[in-house]
Amino acid sequence: MAGVVQALRDGFSTTITLTGAGITFWEKTVQPVGIDGGEAIDLTTMRNNAVRTKYPRSLYDITSSEINVAYDPTVYNTILASINVNQSIITTFPDGATLTWWGYLQKFAAESLEEGKEPMARITLVPTNLNANNAETIPVLAEGSGTN
Q1: Which residues pair with 62 in a beta bridge?
Q2: pLDDT by residue (tens digit) across 103-113?
Q3: Among 52, 65, 100, 101, which lies 20 to 30 A Cα-Cα from 135?
Q4: What residue spans define the domains of the chain?
Q5: SS3 assignment, position 51
């Protein structure tokens, strides 16, 4: 129902899909992309009397996504082939909503491997906001069921 806001009650289970990678990560924690309006433009002049004046920027930035994942060490070659490859990325939220955006796998940082502990890594996905045709493309949200 349009216009009805339903807060997610639980972050489980949010997933990330790299559409061009052919990699399956097992997400433990997902920080979705954010939105940053940037620093204000300072409009203060010597004619101001009491306060500094500012104005918002025209453009905004989509911030990186950080994800803690379990992984299978046998996929290192696939991960290496996916680094810095621009592709469509889908964040799927617990209510079934999807946020589709363009970006690349910038970083795969494996944690220390130790006995009794699942292999873990932290991956960083950077939005490019450019689709496969190099056209500016903002993230697109497709609504889910609205329940969690």
Answers
A1: 35
A2: 999 999 999 99
A3: 65
A4: 15-142
A5: coil
